[in-house]
Amino acid sequence: MESLDNLNSINDFNIAKQVIPGGVNSPVRAFKSVGGTPPFITKGNGAYITDVDNNTYIDFVQSWGPLIFGHCDKDIEKAVIESVKNGLSFGAPTLLETALAKEVISLVDGIEKIRFVSSGTEATMSAIRLARAYTNKEDIIKFEGCYHGHSDALLVSAGSGLATFGNPSSPGVPSDFTKHTLIATYNDLKSVESCIALSNSKGSGVACIILEPIAGNMGLVPSESEFLEGLRLLCDKHGILLILDEVMSGFRASLSGSQSFYKVCGDLTTFGKVIGGGMPVGAFGGRDDIMRLLSPSGAVYQAGTLSGNPVAMHAGLVALQKLRTNPTIYQHLESLALQLVKGLQEICTSFKIPLQTCVRGSMFGFFFNANPVKNFQDALKSDTKMFAAFHQGMLNAGVYFAPSQFETGFICTTMDSKLIDEVLEKAHKVLLEISTHRI
Ligand SMILES: *Cc1c(COP(=O)(O)O)cnc(C)c1O
Description:
Blueprint: H1 7-19, E1 41-45, E2 48-51, E3 56-59, H2 74-85, H3 95-107, E4 113-117, H4 120-135, E5 139-143, E6 156-157, E7 164-165, E8 167-168, H5 175-178, E9 181-184, H6 189-202, E10 206-211, E11 214-215, E12 221-222, H7 225-238, E13 241-245, E14 268-271, E15 282-286, H8 288-291, H9 310-325, H10 329-350, E16 356-360, E17 363-367, H11 376-380, H12 384-396, E18 399-400, E19 409-410, H13 417-437
Parallel strand pairs: 3-18, 5-9, 5-10, 10-13, 13-14
Antiparallel strand pairs: 1-2, 2-3, 4-15, 6-8, 7-9, 11-12, 14-15, 16-17, 17-19
Helix pairs in contact: 2-9, 3-9, 6-7, 10-13, 12-13
Bound molecules: pyridoxal-5'-phosphate.
């Protein structure tokens, strides 16, 4: 198999590990689940990234979603430079915040007011605080396999059996901090009903249900329509707020996120990734009667020194304006995503390698799995050794997929059909090699 000259990356990784835990500032970047060394990136250009050894890769990570226009988009670059020249940050209101707020409100149904923060983690954490204040209840329901950032109450794993209060999934999280978090099974309404019953009998009642309507953090696993519609009904019936975490799917699956796939509005919706055009931006928004409880109009405290940062707001604003004025972008991106997963499917079928695939707009996913994947437990049955071999082979051939079977891939607007064909040709070689060496 082709092999990569990555001596500089290996060296740089070793040096980084001396000063940064694990050498990275976010764990999945360390390539632990696929093995090998992460390439150290020096620059990006459109669909491509280049590393310290001068290898160039076709990039299907795109900074984990934000870069829908690819690296170094000229319009976003121009907006950022313009803003930088006016000053990096003021900690005072600017017109860019109002403009971006109006843009999001016009694109996504159910959002009447919105607040900007600097990460998806902050957005979900704050939305949950607000939901608890609004409902005057303490328990929350999240789904196994959904990721909503790294705040304490969300770092939970299911206890044994269905419908349980969560246990901390990370050392350092007191069990007191997760005792209000109930864990349900994705695409399984019965498990949600059990959680609500448990909370009503033994807990404080459920303040909110938070989910990724199109889950992208256990691989790509969309909600089934009946599931999402059922959640909406359950929430209305029990006075529970529905929080749609669209940090990944917002402006990625479609211009209105999950809303062009489902007729379901959240009471609150969270954003991140694309909303910042590549700069650190998160946001949460929703109904006015809920949002107005936020300080300073209400009593629920939430703040941020760099929230609404002008450089980041400008990048996000230009990104959303570009998307709104070129609505066919999503069809283009989706056709490329479909070309990619259909191609992979055909290759795998010819080598008798089981594969499940999925596309939602510019998001794509594939599992080396013989059965459909509807929840986290299904996803875990995937062949992660096969994924690791595929990932390594593709990386050596110059294609950068997310270094885990349980992540989503992203198409950017500078990709085209010829590029996808090129990727499929490489995938054919890699999978041929894997299948001939398989015992
Ligand atoms: C990425 C992500 C987050 C966390 O966002 P950060 O900016 O990394 O804090 C939350 N929810 C979902 C659905 C995400 O994909």
